[in-house]
From TrEMBL:
SUPFAM superfamilies xrefs: Glycoside hydrolase/deacetylase (SSF88713)
One term of GO molecular function: hydrolase activity, acting on carbon-nitrogen (but not peptide) bonds
Localization (cell): Secreted
PANTHER family: POLY-BETA-1,6-N-ACETYL-D-GLUCOSAMINE N-DEACETYLASE, PTHR34216
Predominant place of localization: secreted
GO cellular component terms, A-Z: extracellular region
Protein name: Putative polysaccharide deacetylase
The entry's keywords: Signal
Length: 346
């Protein structure tokens, strides 16, 4: 676990970390490090995965990360960890493992690896998409953009779009070239249904409303049978809202409905109270934290990096997002880089 200063400097030089600046080093008091994962993808499905690289870890890397955590850290269930931290009884090198969104591969790929090492995990579910057979709009949009590119060699000629989406499409261009990251950001900041509508309009307009079955399968979400099976196997669950709405920009009514309805659905489906929340995108504000408390949540996770220590506000739990590129050295997964992430909470 200990990394020499020289080694740390060398690691800092790695491309994956340079832009992050100097690390905030581990504090001496009790700390809980919360890791955030999204997708864990088998090698043979990687080519069909449409998700952003910032939410994907390869199965092999994940397996090596879990083996390392089991050997070198004290992995605790998130909510137990928060309790122990509040009581000053947290073990050394305490780590909690969480997953966002509710991807199918959390059950099929990640869970068997967690079970092999006896590691607990908490999964935050976007309740509105679980069990519907639908995909997230970002993956459908990526598929549509690839189709567009294949159709006309550029991404500049979409099928006819409603005025608001056409305006957004134009704003996502720079020097005549579509910036897909900017497009995604604009859609997330727009009305809650904008991304869904654009993906649907593009796919319909291109004559491909449905994704090929193998692509759909490689980007699928959990259904409720999955959730129940995971619950029986000891997985804990929390809310990630109903529709993955960015809460700071939502109206107070939408915000309250997203927080309350997802909690109600989870209570009904799981037969127990759910008190853990992860803010979609990690985005929160004072008003959002108040709404989360009013809806009955006792913990809420952000994507602000760092350790959680005695000064923790439980509605502002820090988490470190882990994705493939962050732990990749010249020869694939680097245990040293992963240890560095654990040491510096980067
Ligand atoms: Zn999410």
């Amino acid at each position: 676990m200990t990394i020499s200063f020289k080694r740390r400097l060398k690691l800092l030089g790695a491309a994956a970390l340079t832009r992050l600046g100097m690390p905030r080093l581990a504090r001496r008091g009790q700390t809980l490090l919360v890791l955030c994962y999204h997708r864990v993808v088998p090698e043979d499905q990687a080519a069909a995965v449409l998700s952003s690289p910032y939410i994907v870890v390869r199965e092999d890397s994940f397996a090596r990360q879990m083996a390392l955590l089991a050997a070198e850290c004290a992995v605790v269930p998130l909510e137990d960890g928060l309790d122990l931290l509040a009581r000053g009884q947290l073990p050394r090198r305490a780590v909690a493992i969480t997953f966002d969104d509710g991807w199918k591969d959390t059950r099929t790929t990640a869970l068997p690896i967690l079970e092999r090492h006896g590691l607990p995990a908490l999964v935050y579910l976007t309740t509105g998409v679980i069990g519907t057979g639908r995909l997230f709009w970002q993956e459908r949009l990526t598929h549509a953009l690839r189709l567009l590119q294949a159709v006309d060699g550029s991404r500049n000629a979409p099928p006819p779009l409603p005025p608001d989406l056409a305006g957004l499409w134009q704003r996502a261009h720079h020097n005549g070239v579509l910036d897909s990251h900017r497009l995604t950001r604009l859609l997330k900041q727009s009305t809650p249904d904008a991304g869904e509508r654009l993906a649907t309009a593009l796919l319909d307009g291109l004559g491909h409303p449905a994704l090929p079955p193998e692509v759909h399968a490689a980007n699928a979400m959990l259904d409720w049978d999955d959730v129940h099976a995971m619950q029986r196997r000891g997985v804990a669950f929390g809310s990630h809202t109903v529709d993955h709405v960015l809460l700071p920009a939502a109206t107070p009514e939408v915000r309250a409905a997203q927080l309350e309805e997802s909690r109600r659905v989870l209570r009904q489906r799981l037969g127990q109270e759910v008190r853990a929340l992860a803010y979609p995108n990690g985005d929160h504000s004072l008003a959002v934290r108040r709404a989360a408390m009013a809806a009955g949540y006792t913990s809420a996770a952000t994507l602000e990096r760092g350790f959680n220590d005695e000064s923790l506000d439980c509605l502002r739990v820090r988490r470190v997002n882990v994705y493939e590129g962050k732990t990749a050295g010249p020869r694939g997964f680097s245990p040293d880089l992963f240890r560095f992430i654990l040491t510096a909470a980067l």
